[in-house]
Please model this.
Amino acid sequence: MDSRRLLLLHAALAGTLAAHRADAQDADRVDVRVTGTILVNTFSTSRRTNNFDIPQFVVRPSAADSLGDGGGFGMTVRQTRLGVRAFWPDVRGAEVRAELDTDFYGGQQASGFGDLFALFRVRRAVVDAAWSRATLLIGQEVPLIAEYNPQSLAMVGLSGLATSGNLWLWLPQVRGGVRVARGKSAKLDLEAAIVGAGSNEAQGELFTQPDRAEQSGRPSLQGRAIVRWGTADRPGDISLGAHRGWLATSGDSLLVSRAIAAAWRLPLGKVVTLTGEAFTGAALTGLGGGGIGQHLGPRNVPVESRGGWSQLLVQVAPELSLGGMWGMDDPEDAQLDVNGRLKNATWGGSVQWMPAPFVSALEVRQITTTYRTGALRAVQVNLALGVSF
Model:
């Protein structure tokens, strides 16, 4: 080998080493931030619901209501949140973000004071890599086809419009996306996800067993097309997506969980934002309460349901916003048993005042749940006070 070739080989090796060194330096350039909200919720719920502090539907009277209508006054801190975020500006050409989002809404110990010592819980845990025309996400995140939740300080631990039109549940998944078109003011992305199967059946305190969805031996699949526009401060988008999953049943056949869903986030002028979702499908409890939490009817028939929700937010001032929301879930009556919940609707309003670092909100909601014997209503008033960092 002559000297010229040796020089060229040396230069190539030096360039390769320099590139690896630069990649290593970029990987070391991580920005880490700890976030959180210490939150106290004070609330009054007018009658018995499925959940005292974040009610989702009204339950029928029972012998347990011998002291009244089952309502009451309470205070909790279990909607307090803690999080960690990390950002790498350039890892092999991609911006990489990682986030761990937790709260203390994991339940309570079986004791007379269990609700005062709430259990720590992982909500979301994601790693997200973004290139110029592609994205990849791995972790536990909201459903791809229904990624929004109402903005609220009264409903942090659970989406308050779950069972009223919101398919919200955080699910383990791997998702990817590609940008297929880009115009002067809008972009079109196609995205798909492989989602951990689940049907929200009760599990033990420590050891778990496969539910119907897991026993199918298949993950769920989701995909959507989404059009995005706007700025980082005022983003807008509209999406249309589909979900398909499978449930084990007797014999060799499988039941199908399915949905078609639309979602929107619309900036209307400079201070108004309209956000919402709508769906139609069957056997959707595994996505967070679709069908008012009713998965299968008599004879294992997947319960068909349709619903949706929307929230209008008005930013009156930098620290003050007003909001109104409405949601509804309407399963197919003929597929439910005699005690089934035929329809569930929620409406509410809020005033949020957030002079940093303080956060506060006054929210009022009415829930109407319809049974074959008639409609039952519950009202909750919630005052949230806290500090965000």
Notes: The chain has one domain: 31-203+210-388. The chain has two helices and 17 strands.
